[in-house]
Every structure is written in C-alpha cells, then in structure tokens.
Amino acid sequence: MASATGIPEIHPATIEARDDEPLLGRPGDVTQKPDERIYRNLFTGECESVVTVLLTESPLTSDLGTASVAQAGIWILAALVWQGILSQPLILFTPHPLLGVSALLLQVQAALILQPTATPEQKRAGTRIHYILQLLSVTLFVSAFVIIEVNKGSHPHFVSPHGILGLTTYIAIVLQALVGIIQYFLPVTVLGSIDAGKRIYKYHRWSGYVLLLLEMATVVAATQTTFNVNVIHISLWGVLFAAFLILAGVGARIKKHKMGL
C-alpha cells in the first residue's frame, strides 16, 4: 500500500523479519525459472537490498546476484595472475600459472551454470555444459601439471606447501572428473544401474565444493613461493580477496537438498 508520498508502506514486522537476512540471501535461494535461458545462471542469484525493501512491496531478485559475486572474484584472480606473469619475460614456467588460473575460471563457470537448474530439461542442459567446461578445465590443469614437472627438471618436486597442495589438488581433480563421468555417462556399465549412479550425485557435489576450497588454498600458497615473492609479486591480499568472493558467491548458491541435507 502506498503512502501519501507515493512510497509503498512497509509493515514494521516485514522489515524486522529481514534484519538478519544475509546480504547474499540464504544458501540455495536461487533457482532457474522455467522460461529462463541457462546462460543467465552465470550471473543471477538472490542479492537483496535494504533500499529495495523500503521502496517496493516485494523482495528483489537481482540480475546481478550471487553468481556475479563469484564472477567478480574469479576474473579478479585471473587478472592478477595474468598481469603478474605476463609482466615478466616468457620462460618455460610461464604457461603453468596461466593455464592453471584459466582452468579454475572454467571450473567456476561449470559450477555456476549447473547450480540453479531445477527441471529435468534444465538439469540435462546444465550437465552437458558442465561436462564440456570441466573437460576443458581438466585438460588445462593436466597441461599445467606437465609443464611444471618439465620445468622442475632434476630439482626437488613437491616440497613447498604450494607443491604439496598442488599435487593433492591435481589428483583430486582427476578423481572428481572420473567419478562425474562414471555416475552420469556410465552408471550401468560401471556401477550396475542408473539408480546407483544417482545415489552418488550428492557425494560428487560435496567433493566438488571441497575441491574448490583446496584449489583456493593452492592458489593462496602460490603467492608465498620464492619465485612469486622475489620475482612476480602477485599480491597475497589480492588473491585472498578474490578467493573470498569466489567462495562467497558459489557457496551462497548451494542447495542443501541436493547435498542430501
């Protein structure tokens, strides 16, 4: 109901009920609408504003929502890495971080495109796009691993926190990809039935989010390597800020029921 000033009147109870609402909305709030194009999953989400609550009678579903927070984070991270690496002379090591952060960028897109899907048609389309993006991502990750191994040569391998986390992350990435392929494309052949494949969906989702945390830790650890501290100078705080945005944006869209909770 509008007041004499033309501004809709909001009942005090409505505002009080929203005082403790998180700025990014409750986890899993965002769901792809039946008539919504799937590419919008890369940007949309519940991101409600106090100003909007005061000026309208219904909450805002912003076109620039939680996914945009994650997008900001991953593009900031990519920019930091690409700028830091390309500001130095090109050497054999150069493609390793460039390929790694590009793979991570694709991986975030793969998660964002699939998270809000709801109908069977949306889930099929989202899963296919998710699979293609993840396939490209894994290819880049493996290439980054091969390059750093060749670059290391006879020097000690996997001795720094970044090296140890990196190896653990690469193994986890390959295992995650294999489980995803088996559960969706080969459930009958490998697991015995389609239902058996569906039963491990929630574990695949859990491990995917844990893997994202591991990847962020690996990138943060990279800023503390001798080569970065002495030569590249990629900012620790810049990477931490980007990682926070990525985890906040992706985490806010987690649907508990899809995780078996």
Which structural traits does this protein have?
261 residues; mainly alpha; Four Helix Bundle (Hemerythrin (Met), subunit A); 11 helices
What does this structure look like?
The protein is an all-alpha fold and 261 residues long. It has one domain: Four Helix Bundle (Hemerythrin (Met), subunit A) (Up-down Bundle). It has eleven helices and no strands. The protein has helices at 12-17, 50-55, 66-86, 95-114, 120-152, 161-185, 187-191, 194-199, 201-222, 226-232, 236-251. Helix 3 (66-86) runs antiparallel to helix 4 (95-114). The protein is globular. It is found in: Membrane.
Derived structural class? mainly alpha
CATH level-3 fold name = Four Helix Bundle (Hemerythrin (Met), subunit A)
Would you tell me the overall average pLDDT? 83
Please provide the ordered H/E string of secondary-structure elements: HHHHHHHHHHH
Tell me, briefly, the overall form. Answer: globular
- Total tally of structural domains: 1
Major sheet, described briefly?
A: none
Enumerate the spans where pLDDT stays under 50 for 5 or more consecutive residues: 1-25, 47-63
Q: How big is the Rg? A: 21 Å
The CATH architecture can be named as Up-down Bundle
Helix content: 55-70%
Q: Helix count?
A: 11
How large is the share of residues in beta strands? under 5%
- How many angstroms does the end-to-end distance come to? 39 Å
Q: Identify the CATH class.
A: Mainly Alpha
Q: How many distinct beta strands?
A: 0
